Amino acid sequence: MTETADGHPGAGPGTGSGAATATPAGGTPLPTGSRNAPEPHGLGASVMPTDVYAKAQGTFPYAADLWAEGLLWAAVHRSAYPRARIVSIDTEPAAAMPGVHAVVTHEDVTGDSSHGRKIADQPAFARDEVRYFGEPIAAVAADHPDTARLAAAAIVVEYEVLEPVSDPEKSFESEPLHPDGNLLRHIPLRYGDPDATGEVVVEGLYRVGRQDPAPIGAEAALAVPRPDGGVEIYTASTDPHTDRDLAAACFGLPPEQVKIVVTGVPGAMGDREDAALQVPLGLLAMRTGCPVKVALTREESFLGHAHRHPTLLRYRHHADGEGKLVKVEAQILLDGGAYADTSSDALAAAVSFAAGPYVVPHAVIDGWVVRTNNPPSGHVRGEGAMQVCAAYEGQMDKLAERLGLDPAEVRMRNVLATGDLLPTGQTVTCPAPVAELLTAVRETPLPPLPKDAPESDWLLPGGPEGAGDPAAVRRGVGYALGMVHMLGAEGTDEVSTATVKVSGPVATVMCAAVESGQGFDTLARQIVQETLGLDEVHIASVDTDQPPSGASGRGRHTWVSGGAVERAAKMVRTQLLQPLAAKFGMSTELLSIADGKITSYDGVLSTTVAEALEGKELWATAQCRPHPTEPLDEAGQGDAFVGLAFAAVRAVVDVDIELGSVRVVEVALAQDVGRVLNPRQLRARLEAGVTQGIGTALTEHLRVAKGVVRHPDLTAYALPTALDAPDIRIVELVEERDVVAPFGAKPVSSAPVVTTPSAVAAAVRAATGRPVNRLPIRPQAAVGAQQHSG
Description:
The chain is 23% helix and 25% strand. It is α+β, with helices and mostly antiparallel strands.
């Protein structure tokens, strides 16, 4: 980790030339906790989120709430086919409509014609060919949202329809779907002896479907032109600096002429990481000279952002007669969709974690990610790791059945620990209490069976008063262990910058880390409260005038941005204490700050922080940069990850073997968290992760037939509701601090997302005796009950 020399912090969030009248999220903190009780304070306390009251009262400003004088509305014309050549685009019918101010296509992109987070392979607007259903072709600005939509629909595109490639297995031999070819990446991992064999061999074929991030609030944005020819874009970005650079390149402008201002983010799990809105809006705003806003419908939201990679997994596990793993063989195929996005990262995680949190002496693993004419895939929480968890845990269940062992026992005989090697050759140097986590969920008492409760209290699969017959209900218990990596991987330069400024009794934190629901703003307040003994801490709004802090996700803002805030706060603390220490002839290390007071080790000095700060203005800027990683080599070997986090889940389900319906009765979770920084916030994150995992296991599947998205709405795409959420028992949080991480904390929300679906699938297998090898679990997979071969 490094820190910068003291220097004047950059200008705060600017208003630009024509700022929107609605204020972006951030700024003044709201009161927390009970209004009659002392507020929780500092790290380790259950500090309430800074925005909780605004969100509860409906005053929190999301992008969809923004407005500006002279506002125009935008709409996008999207492809009606998953694959077709564009013969012609006729925009005249749209341009001629009353109220329409501008229509833009690929011809209006004056800079780089394509963009992308890893590879610039995705056009801002389709040019010669459309490669997925719903790909943007043109955009319209009009004086009313209905007019804009009608005008977009009036654009006439003549196509030469082509046969789409929707099966990723066929992509290898099909004609190129993109000038860069169909293979996005291949990772051949070889570890140990490829010819090693075991006494017992089990095989399996597994499939994981396409999951949508399904944001609570659909995407929206506002673009405002600037007098210098540039543009300001107000949107719920989770990586504003990358979005700015992508948009500026498409506009043919230097980055300093494009500004991204982050509005309130209504939840994000990767779906906020694209430039699908910024480029069309910016072009329209600069063309018309007016502010332009768009608010997507739910259907457009489903079509416009990336999804979890659908995955096909073939596995063969070798073990000895005692159930100890000898070798894992796997072939992993990810459907990347039409464009690259972050598919390379997802494949690296999938291949690296293909054996799971288990000790494996030998491994032969091949992973591919290919282009198809399906919707683009990208970053969704736990990408890569979730898909392989479903497969390797299915294999562990098969191994247990073959050997006649308890499923938890066969896992316990193989668990990973600190000091062991991953199949990538990387040594696990962080805390890895996998055995402790498994023991915790294994020893937790099971929930009572329905026969122990009055029949009126039963909640059958299928919901209250469902058609199910109690006699057809079978209960199953399943286990799963999962792992995720922290921060970026394979040489990603993770760095964040933060400035802490103190003026009297008020502190302000300026950091471009976006609060996307993970609680960074609250954590930043806690850090400053803990370090400086101040109660009132403001978090400045985020925009690209500030130094970059990278994308949200994988716990990076807790680690990297939180580390930068801590370093800056400690530098201010030194500035505060140095004059007092010099006056009494002692070092600053002999002074402490607690409960708003500064005291010396011997009690000679005692004053309040407010008195020491009176009339002063202090500030410092610092950076945090974790130790570097390296790309995987041609054999899939390398120290590719900064750190790892682990979880163990036990799921209890009731299955109606006549209807195929499944109810998750209880989920017991044990997780290694490093250090609990905010107990209430931590629990909320874990419960949300488990619930999302249940959706992955049972209901969430975006149906695509021959490249065409079917029923892109929340009626057909079934998200879990409060009625689907089981009892969630957090049975143990292992606080073994990671010494290389600031505060010793680990990310918490991804691990239960990765692990819960596999535990639910294992429980359904236990209840029915049937092979459950597909997520989400289809009703027909749970119908009927078979005898276990073991």
